[in-house]
Amino acid sequence: MLEFKSICIHNKRSMSVELSQQNRSTTASTLSGTYYRWLTKIKNNNNQEAVSAPHQHSLISDVSGKLLSGQVTVLTGASGSGKSVLLRVLAGLLPMDSGEVCLQSVDPLHNPSYHSIHDTVPTQWRTQVSLLAQRPQLLEGSVLDNLQMPYNLQAHQHRNFDMDWHITQLSSLGRSADFLQQEANYLSGGERQLVNTLRLLQLSPQVLLLDEPTAALDSEVSTQLVHLLVNWARAETQRTLLWVTHDTQDVMPFADQHWSMQAGVLSKVF
Ligand SMILES: Nc1ncnc2c1ncn2[C@@H]1O[C@H](COP(=O)(O)OP(=O)(O)OP(=O)(O)O)[C@@H](O)[C@H]1O
């Protein structure tokens, strides 16, 4: 289960205003007279702007929620409303200005443990809370090279690559084992997303954050991928999915929760 509370993120403009205010204060303490009064006036003007228009400077405002184990949560909202920003924060890829994200796990003896994002090494956090990004980055080489790549990383060196598992998943996506030998550089956008998805799923994170995973796929493969992801989530009780999409048709029948993001504010639809 992943719980997040009171997350706030300001955009760069407001951060640069805050920083420049701090710099001006430091400089002003060494000055006096006209220049000091001028600096104070600028500072006050900036403060008035921030007070009169607080939401202009927030990408995410006081956002809280719970992703329960075994559940699929669908997140919708207008373009630019902050959905991807929230996913990146939960994955530990974007720092928050305030708030908490906490992962609850249960060991084989059913003892719960809690890990705060603030106290966990980022690489360790991302082995359990993984983001499937909108624009997949693949390396030069074959599909197989890309799928095997994570096992070179220290965080996954103790795991073994399972070729049979990949062939089974590819078959459910209408692809034969020959797909593994294709050059990643020549893949279509949709095929790149399939490789990216399998590359993450094989590592078995507890929380999977999906940023429009079916956007580049035709409707047949899109339906196949939705089934693959939902089946994957349901295969282990601790897994949970947070699914950002503009196309709810395929995934909504599997949704346990539906959230909506509007201008950085999260609300519950059900
Ligand atoms: N690191 C950042 N610093 C400042 N602004 C950012 C940053 N990342 C995103 N933004 C801005 O935050 C807003 C929300 O972006 P986000 O990518 O979360 O939108 P979205 O809801 O996922 O949209 P879409 O549905 O089109 O993918 C946008 O205006 C974007 O320009």
Tell me the total number of β-strands: 10
- Radius of gyration (CA) equals 22 Å
Adjacency order of strands in the biggest sheet: 6-7-8-3-9-10
Separation of the first and last Cα atoms: 18 Å
Largest sheet: 6 strands, mixed
The bound ligands are: adenosine-5'-triphosphate
User: Going by CATH, what is the homologous superfamily of the largest domain?
Assistant: P-loop containing nucleotide triphosphate hydrolases
Mean pLDDT over all positions: 86
Number of helices: 8
Q: Outline, from the CA principal axes?
A: globular
Instruction: Supply the number of structural domains.
Output: 2
Task: Provide the CATH topology of the largest domain.
Answer: Rossmann fold
Order of helices and strands: EHHEEHEEHEHHHEHEEE
Estimate the strand proportion. Answer: 15-25%
CATH class of the largest domain: Alpha Beta
* CATH architectural label of the largest domain: 3-Layer(aba) Sandwich
Secondary-structure-derived class: alpha/beta
